[in-house]
Amino acid sequence: MSARIGKEYVLTYYSPKLDCEEDSIDLGGVQYPLVKQSPNEFEYTEIVEVDYAF
Length: 54
Known about the structure:
Layout: E1 9-15, E2 23-27, E3 30-37, E4 44-49
Parallel strand pairs: 1-3
Antiparallel strand pairs: 1-4, 2-3
C-alpha cells in the first residue's frame, strides 16, 4: 500500500506540563517525536512530514 500513499505525517503534541512524559515513533529508521515538552507555556500540535529518503 505504501506505493499508493502520497505523503505521510506525524502529529507532535507539545505539552506545557513540567512532568510531561515524552514519546516517539520510529519510521524508516528515523525517530519522530509524538509528545514533547513545550518550549513555552503554550499547548499545541505540530504537523511534521515523514521523510523516507532512500
